[in-house]
Amino acid sequence: MFEELSLKLEKALKKVSGQGKLTEKNISDTVREIRRILLDADVNYKVAKDFIDKVQEKALGTEVIASISPGQLITKIIYDELTELLGGDRKEIKLNASGLTTILVVGLQGSGKTTFCGKLAKRLKESKLKVMLAAADVYRPAAVEQLKTLGAQIEVPVYSIDVPDAKRTAKEALAEANAAGCNVLIVDTAGRLHVDEEMMNEAAAIRDIINPDESLFVVDSMTGQDAVNSAKAFNEKINYDGIVLTKLDGDARGGAALSIRAVVGKPIKFISSGEKLSALEPFYPDRLASRILGKGDIISFVEKAQESFDENEAAKLEEKFKKNKFDFEDFLKQIKMIKKMGSLSSLLGMIPGIGNQIKNADIDDKALVKVEAIINSMTQEERQKPKILNGSRRMRIARGSGSSIQEVNRLIKQFGDMQSLMKKMNQRGFANNFLNKIK
Fold it and tell me: Hey, which end of the chain has fewer CB within 10 Å, N or C?
C-alpha cells in the first residue's frame, strides 16, 4: 500500500541529501514537498499540517554534526515523527491471566471483520489458549456460515443460534464459553454498508451484555478518509480499545492508515495484508515507519521466518548442506515454508533496500505454485537424484504438471546452479552461519 508514498518521500529526501548543510530554505522546501506528498496520499489535512510543523520545528532546532548528512538527519526526524504519529509503542490486546477474556469486534460490512475474527482466533489458539467464536452477525447473508467455515479450518468452535437475534447469541455464547472453560470468546457483530443508528445501538447493547475486556474496530484501509470518519463515529458510540487495519496489501494511497490513530486517539493493534488466516500481524509503529521510508522491516521478516521454520527440519537441512545433498524434496519443503510466510512481494518489501526496487517488478506468487506442481510430478527417486532426469522423464513431468518442457528444463537448470552455489557457500562456511542465524 505504501510503495507510492515511499518512492515520493525518498525522492524528496534525495534533494536535501546532496546539500552540505541544513538551512531554513532547504528545510522549508523539503517539508513543503513532504506536505504535498502526504496530502496526495489522502492523509487528513490537519494531521498532515501538525506532522509537518513538528518536523520543521525539530529540523530548524537541530545542529548537524559532521558525521551525519542533512538527508540522514531529516530522514531520522521524519522517522521519529512518523513513529509517534502511528502510536509510538506497540499496544497489546488485554488478556485475562485467569478467567474468560471477551473480545468484541465491530466494523462496517466489507471491512474484513469476520475474516479478522478467524485470524485472531487462530493467533490466540497458537498461543495455547482455548478460544470460542460467536456468530452475532445475523443479518448479512451467509455471515454465520462464513464464520463456521473459518472456525472449522482452525478447529475452533463457533457458537450460533437458529434465530436472528444478535443479543441473545452474545448472551448465550458468553455462558457457553464460561461453561466450556474457554480462555477467550471473540464476538463477531453485524456490519452495515454505512454507519446507522440501529447498527450502533445493537453493537452497544452487545458490548453491555459481554462487558468486553477488549473491543476492536476493524477498518478497510483502502476506503481512505471514509475509514477515518466511520472510525470516529464508532468510537463515539462504542468507545473501543483499538483499531485493526485490513487490506494493507491493496494499492490505495495509505492516507487512512497514517491519519486514523491521530484523529481517533486509539492505538492500531493489528494489521492484515492478505486473505490467508495467517496474514495477521501485531502492529509496530516503528516498523511501519521504517517501511514507509524505504528502510525495510527486517525484524518482522525474521519473526515470520522463525514462525515458519521447524527446528528439527533446520537441523536436517543443515546436515544436508554440509554433505551437499540438498535435493528437490528439500526444495519442496522450503517452498511450502515460504508460502506460509506470506506473499513474495510483501516478504521482499521487508528487506532493507529492496522494497522500492521491486515496485514495478512482476513478482508472481503463482510461480511458486508452478514450481511446486513440477516437483510434485517427479517420482521420489527423481527428486532425490536430479541427475537421472533425462529427456523422456522431463517430458512426462511437463505433461503431469501442465508445464512446458522449457519450464521444466529451466527449473532443473536453476536448481543445479543453486546446488553449485550452496557447495561453494558450504566450503566457505556461509551455510552454517546462515542457518544458525535463522535458528
Answer: C
User: How long a stretch of residues is the chain?
Assistant: 439
Q: How confident is the model at residue 45 (pLDDT cuts 50, 70, 90)?
A: confident
Q: Alpha carbon 421 to chain centroid distance? A: 32
Cell output for 80: 521519529
Mean pLDDT calculated for residue range 92-113: 89
Q: Are 187 and 214 in contact (CB under 8 A)?
A: no
Q: Is the pLDDT of residue 154 over 90?
A: yes
Prediction pTM value: 0.67
The two beta strands, 184-189 and 131-136, are parallel
* Residue 149, pLDDT score: 94
How far is residue 382 from each of residues 318, 322, 335, 412, measured CA to CA in Å? 22, 21, 18, 11
| Cross-strand partners of 186 | 103, 133
* Side-by-side strand order, sheet with 242-246: 158-159, 131-136, 184-189, 101-107, 214-220, 242-246, 268-272, 280-282
291-322 pLDDT, tens per residue?
Answer: 777 665 444 444 555 555 555 666 666 666 66
Q: Is pLDDT of 179 > 90?
A: yes
Kind plus residue range of the DSSP H or E element containing 398: helix 391-401
CA distances in angstroms from 78 to 28, 71, 277, 289, 321, listed in the order given: 14, 11, 33, 9, 43
The three three-digit cell numbers of residue 3, written as one number: 510503495
Q: Return the higher-pLDDT residue of 250 and 154.
A: 154
35-41 mean pLDDT: 85
Residues with Cβ within 8 Å of 202's Cβ and at least 6 positions away in sequence, in order, are 166, 167, 189, 190
C-alpha cell at 266: 486509539
Rounded mean pLDDT, 330-359: 59
Domains and CATH numbers, the chain: 3-85 (1.20.120.140), 101-289 (3.40.50.300), 302-438 (1.10.260.30)
Dihedral of alpha carbons 409, 413, 419, 425, sign: negative
What is the CB neighbour count within 10 angstroms for residue 227? 27
- Cβ proximity of 350 and 300 under 8 Å: yes
